[in-house]
Amino acid sequence: MNLSQNLEVQTVLGPIPIEKLGRTLMHEHLAVGYSGWESHTNRLRNSRTDMRSICVDRIGELQDLGYQTLLDPCPADLGRDVELMVEVAEATGFNIICATGLYREEGGGAFYWTHKAQYEDIEGVMEEMFVSELTEGIGTTGVRPGIIKCGTGHGSMSEYEGKVFAAVARASVVTGAPVTTHTDDGTVGDLQQQVLTRGNVPSNRIIIGHSCGTTDTDYHMTIASGGSYLGFDRFGIAALMSDEDRADSLMRLITQGAGDRIVVSHDSVWCWKGEPFPTYAMDRLSEVMEPTRFDREIIPMLKDRGATEEQIEMLVVDNPRRFFSGESLKSLNPTS
Ligand SMILES: [Zn+2]
Questions:
Q1: 73: CA distance to ligand 1 center in Å?
Q2: 106 CA distance to ligand 1 middle (Å)
Q3: Under a CB-based contact definition with an 8 Å cutoff, are residues 165 and 198 in contact?
Q4: Nearest 5 degrees, angle CA 91-CA 94-CA 99?
Q5: Contact 260, 318 (CB under 8 A)
Q6: How far apart are CA 15 and CA 7, in angstroms?
Q7: 182: which strand partners?
Q8: What is the pLDDT of residues 60-89, one digit of tens each?
Q9: How far, in Å, from the CA of 71 to the mean position of ligand 1?
Q10: Cβ neighbours of residue 159 closer than 8 Å, sequence gap 6 or more
Q11: pLDDT of residue 1
């Protein structure tokens, strides 16, 4: 087990010193493909060249805002495309961190694994795969992930998801890699934290993702006082929550002393594999899924609500750095 503080973080182009992270978005996607995308053969949309240029343009916009790094936590079964990440990182000089891991039961590759589970212990097989990706690289690419991803559906952790979480905890303990999660509508993040920490993952090595799916401050403070990070990482996705509500919730957490454990992002998807939304909607998605929104719209919103420059800087620079370094978090009273 690696308990010492990390000095480096793994990017798709190799390890970099933690201090090179700079301004960091903790949950964006160059490309996503929901399970089954390959089957929609007349709607495969963008060519490799198109995808590359879309991503390079997006990164350019982020670089103009002073960003240096993003985490693309696409799990192995959601159209993860590490070759695209490598091409874009090489073309832009931007730091891109990718993930190993598996998605929640719905939407990812669960059928493959539950089929296999009829015959053998898939927890062990998953753990072996995660560890092999983290230590040797993904497939034949040699690219090593910097984090492990897992997720749950709305309101509960399914049996399958429980196996993924157990395998993720084991792989995290073996390799020292941190963990980031998917939650639906800000539910069961507290359970995710319990399952992972019972599996001996240090709480400060966990981000409970999509925590901005709820405005329940008690729920947020339970996770925060448990010593984990909260992802306010879906700014701009108005179908799930208004940004005003997200900003209000975030400010309540800052006021209660939990601002040092919130990371921000948009969960924007720049290229879709296949066409999971109707044709007419696909082109409009790029307007919604805008990774510059935090700087353009959300920072002014937070400042209106009393946030200081220093607190904003903490969200985009200090917290990602502290998370990846494994530096400890101060203890926090859930009722303060
Ligand atoms: Zn995502």
A1: 6
A2: 14
A3: no
A4: 105
A5: yes
A6: 10
A7: 151
A8: 999 999 999 999 999 999 999 999 999 999
A9: 10
A10: none
A11: 41
The Å distance, Cα 234 to ligand 1 centre, comes to 8
- What's the 107 CA to ligand 1 centre distance in angstroms? 12
Distance 268 CA to ligand 1 centre (A): 7
Which phi and psi (to 5°) does residue 26 adopt?
A: -100, 5
Q: How far is the CA of 236 from the centre of ligand 1 (A)?
A: 13
Is residue 32 classed as helix, strand or coil in its secondary structure? strand
Ligand 1 centre distance from Cα of residue 119 (Å)? 31
From ligand 1's centre to the CA of 17, what distance in Å? 25
Distance 271 CA to ligand 1 centre (A): 13
From the CA of 209, how far away is ligand 1's center (Å)?
A: 9
pTM: 0.96
Q: How far is the CA of 336 from the centre of ligand 1 (A)?
A: 31
- Among 2, 1, 20, 231, smallest CA distance to 10 is for 20
Neighbours of ion ligand 1 (CB under 5 A): 267
Low-confidence ranges of the chain (pLDDT < 50): 1-2, 336
Largest Cα–Cα separation, the chain: 57
The label of the residue with tokens 């044709």 reads: 279
Q: Whose CA is closest to 326, among 233, 227, 235?
A: 227
Which domains are delineated in the chain?
8-325 (3.20.20.140)
Distances (CA, A) of 51 to 24, 44, 88, 98, 265: 22, 11, 9, 17, 21
Bridge partners (DSSP) of residue 180 are: 149, 207
Which residue has tokens 């509960």?
A: 156
